Amino acid sequence: MENKFKGQALNLVVIVEEVFAENKTASGIDLSGIIDANEKQKSGIVVSVGTECPKKTDGSYTIKIGDKVMFDKYKCTPLTQNGNPFIMLDYRDLVWTGE
What is the pLDDT of residues 11-33, one digit of tens each? Predict the structure, then answer.
């Protein structure tokens, strides 16, 4: 996946590109919009990590670009850069999915 975000998150902010689940019935009806609207938790891919986010003892961030995370859709701020939608979140509001 190409990182379309150009810039650097600051402080404890993490920028995420949302991943939409594709949900189709056996007959081909797309239910993604209905299911996404009812979900409180969203998922996405980290595209930028803030400079003040926690680091491991070796100096690398505990969360890194490309990690898949979950977040509460009510605790995020939408952000658009060059027509590409992103989500701005506080580091403490993320759940790492381990993928």
Answer: 999 999 988 766 666 777 766 66
Two tokens at 94? 């993320």
| H/E run at residue 87 | strand 84-90
Q: pLDDT tens, 50-60?
A: 989 888 888 88
Nearest Cα neighbor of 23 from 15, 34, 10 is 34
- pTM of the prediction? 0.77
88 touches 18 (CB < 8 A): no
CA-based nearest residue to 42, from 94, 99, 98, 84:
94
β-strand partners of 96? 69
Select from 92, 89, 91, 90 the least CA-distant residue to 78: 89
Residue 45 corresponds to which amino acid?
I
